[in-house]
Hints:
Elements: H1 2-11, H2 16-36, H3 43-67, H4 73-97, H5 101-132, H6 145-161, H7 164-198
Amino acid sequence: MLTSQAMTAHKIGLSPNKVSVIGFLLALASAAAYAFAPNFDWMLLLATIFLLVSGFCDSMDGIIARTYQQETVFGGFFDSVLDRYADAAIYAAIIIAGLASPAWGPVFGSIWGLAALSGSVLVSYSRARAEAAGIKMESVGFAERAERMLILAFVSIIGFFWLPALGYGIALLAVVSNLTVIQRVLHVYRALNKKAVVA
Length: 199
């Protein structure tokens, strides 16, 4: 299904980088909807739609690049940078709007939000640092970006009916993302030790 849609995107002239930019703009739209959600409940559903379509674009750009031999070092770097900005914008909007407060109160709601934001950034950063050291990190950890987006989308939908669910979901994201960072740190530690023994 994604391949056929990638073919359609390619036919209308969408390059992987253009799709990355579209996904980023949709993520910003999602962040804006989260920011206005305290005043308009239906904005949570709109934020979820934008979030999921943004995630779809994030998958699509890679498929287009691989299918049509358009993979470049800059393209991968550019996509990764946009993803980090997108994640930061969405979590920042949730924190500023106080959407975790109904579950935890304003102080702890903000703490959980910041922990989720930090974990999200560090999951990607730990992978980048490990791969720069020659250690493969694909599929290491159970909360990569796609999983985190699906969790956030799920709790956002529930949050439309019962707002505290979003706060509990943010806490869950904080826990699983930071556990993923720990998994990756341990993976790198073991991999480097193996290299040292072999050397």
